Amino acid sequence: MASGFECARIANIAFPKTQFAQPSAIDDASTIVTPTPTIDFAPSGTDEYVILGGRLLEDYDGGGTKLRFLFLSSATSGSARWVASWRRMAAGTSPAASFTWSTNEQAVTVATHGSANTWVLVEIPFTHGTQMNNTVAGEEYQIRVHRDQDHADDGLAVDARIGSDTFAILEV
Q1: Dihedral sign, Cα of residue 53, residue 63, residue 138, residue 96
Q2: Residue 118 lies in a domain
Q3: What angle do CA 97, 6, 72 make, to 5 degrees?
């Protein structure tokens, strides 16, 4: 599979039992209001999470991946710090087993657009192997995403929203 192509299918978006980001929507200004589904991460003092689940495609060649999505904020300046980590969900592994998400966390800090509520592209890269929790072609996975709003690099005092239908996993 060539660089830049989708190498995984995202089958579901789930929310943890605690510290979850809020499903939300932004209405457009057209005559027939069409909401854009979003996931709302508040500047609450507590990190909030969303979990993506899916399968790495059979033709993934092991070159690493990047999680791509769009976010927006009502702020016209400042940055949001986004963090993601993989969990392998293959045969022979247990979802109940002890697992530490932070062992393979990858983070990026992305500036808001100069205009309020304008989409900004976020890409979080993962090398093949440990950063992807050793997930290989054909295996299921979970990716936990959160806004690290209490990190020094996150300067937004307002919500940041991810477009819930903008997630993609690309081969690097």
Answers
A1: negative
A2: yes
A3: 85
Nearest 5°: the CA angle 156, 33, 165 is 55
Is 1 within a domain?
no
**Residue ranges in the chain modelled with pLDDT below 70:** 1-2, 95-98
pTM score of the predicted model: 0.91
- Do the beta carbons of residue 122 and residue 82 sit within 8 Å? yes
CA distances for 170 relative to 31, 66, 135, angstroms: 36, 5, 14
What's the CA gap between 21 and 39, in Å, rounded?
6
Phi then psi for residue 103, to 5 deg, are: -65, -20
Structural domain tally of the chain?
1
The pLDDT assigned to 28 comes to: 80
The angle at the Cα of 67, spanning 120 to 21, to the nearest 5 degrees, equals: 70
Cβ 25 vs Cβ 161: under 8 Å: no
| 8 Å CB contact between 64 and 172 | yes
Predicted pLDDT of residue 104: 85
Q: 118-168: per-residue pLDDT in tens?
A: 999 999 999 999 999 999 999 999 999 999 998 999 999 999 999 999 999
**CATH number of 136's domain:** 2.60.120
- Asked if the structure places residue 3 within a domain, the reply is no
Range of the domain at 144: 8-171
